[in-house]
Amino acid sequence: MVTKPTLILDRMQFFGRLAADYQTMFGVTLESLKGKRVLDCPAGPSSFVAQACAAGVDAVGVDPLYAHGAHELRQRCQDDIAYTVQRMAAHEGAYSDLNLQAYADNKRAALELFLPDYEADRAGVRYINASLPTLPFANDEFDHTFSAHLLVTYSDPASGGILPNSPFTLEWHMAAVFALMRVTRGSLHVYPTTTRTLPARRHPYIEAIVARIEAQNVRGHDACHGNGDTMGVWKCRYEPSTYQRGDMAQNYLNASLVIERQPL
Prior knowledge:
The protein is of the alpha/beta class. The protein has helices spanning 19-26, 30-33, 48-54, 70-90, 100-120, 170-182, 204-219; strands at 4-5, 37-40, 58-62, 127-128, 142-148, 184-191, 197-198, 233-240, 255-262. The chain has a single domain (4-262), classed as Vaccinia Virus protein VP39 (Rossmann fold, 3-Layer(aba) Sandwich), CATH 3.40.50. Helix 4 (70-90) runs antiparallel to helix 5.
């Protein structure tokens, strides 16, 4: 089986997406989230928090780069967009169906919506400087949590990711997912779930996470709190996604992972 990677990057990238992209990734709308408390982690310079709050959603974003000011974040994002597009262009066979100019414009549009809201949040209520797997929130604080383009994406190429010498091992992924589950009382949504290879396959870290959660359910344990869960058990399912990641690795496996608490 051919497992050629469709993209390799030498560093993590700081750019985001529009709220409309979250709808295609996760199959949810801002209207359906109205009145809910929602976490976006990591959020980066995505416009989701700004657009969600404007639509009546109590949204919070988390990213370690929120330690920096708006000017520095603008420059970092612009540089990373240019670098990533250059690397994608070098893999033109894998991204021949993607308009790279439109791809870059989408990221810049998200940045321009993000920055004014980021600057206005002087109290640090909507944008929190933190990083997985350590989250400064109480158990079950959020109705829904969304995590896009960190988990599995920046794993090492041998596992199907894009970052050589990645610090994001399987053990780190387990800790990160359980941390996100800990602060979520409803559902956790993770995207992507496939490798960046030709052909694509379900990422082995995702498969291992699902297997552990299902095993914890069989034993009657809460996978994130480590004890008996009187509120219910966690169930995993794949939600088909229409988000166009751009590379030819996308196929019928294109889906988000939904980890949802089910009542007993």
